[in-house]
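thought: user wants a sequence for this fold. calling inverse folding tool.
action: design(structure=
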């Protein structure tokens, strides 16, 4: 086993961004909503758009909360896994990754509020931000540990092109083939049929 006694250095800018994202998600929204209800000030109406999802075109700050968590999980992978790879070795590192994925998955199911009801019809295996982070973390971690940077860049570019091509050219049950409306895109079909 490799041992390294140097203290681990955290990426403070990432911690600050994570804190800002959580503050926006948990505290800031509630503070503005409560102030808006209590004060009834018309100028606060202008701030409330920040806490609503845009239906389809464009985005609000609220629409960026989940992608920002995914981004932060991805950014942290090289720092965290490089450190653990040096201090723990591959076997323990793969167990750490698997444990994190399982915990995120279970926390996502708990977050849905349906897990403890023990009703299989109300338990959705993949419908939560934490589950999306778990899958992204698993795939990105394995790619980071088993491939070179050029391969990773090639896979990322290939996935982007494949995602576009499927949306542009594939049609299933009237979904897709260049239809990018909320109810006609191929991602919506996959969400309804598979997820």
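)
observation: tool returned 195 residues.
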């Amino acid at each position: 086993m490799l041992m390294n006694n140097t203290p681990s250095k955290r990426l403070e800018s990432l911690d600050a961004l994570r804190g800002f994202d959580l503050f926006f998600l948990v505290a800031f929204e509630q503070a503005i909503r409560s102030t808006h209800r209590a004060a009834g000030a018309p100028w606060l109406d202008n701030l409330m758009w920040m806490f609503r999802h845009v239906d389809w075109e464009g985005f609000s700050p609220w629409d960026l909360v989940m992608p920002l968590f995914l981004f932060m999980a991805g950014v942290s992978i090289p720092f965290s896994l490089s450190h653990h790879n040096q201090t723990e070795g591959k076997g323990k590192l793969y167990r750490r990754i698997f444990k994190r994925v399982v915990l995120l998955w279970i926390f996502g199911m708990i977050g849905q509020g349906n897990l403890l009801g023990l009703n299989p019809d109300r338990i959705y295996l993949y419908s939560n931000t934490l589950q999306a982070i778990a899958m992204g973390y698993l795939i990105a971690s394995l790619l980071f540990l088993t491939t070179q940077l050029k391969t990773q860049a090639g896979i990322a570019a290939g996935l982007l092109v494949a995602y576009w091509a499927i949306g542009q050219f594939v049609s299933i049950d009237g979904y897709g083939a260049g239809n990018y409306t909320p109810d006609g895109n191929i991602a919506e079909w996959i969400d309804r049929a598979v997820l």
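thought: summarizing for user.
answer: Here is the designed sequence. Helices lie at 12-39, 45-48, 65-88, 90-112, 129-146, 149-169, 186-193.
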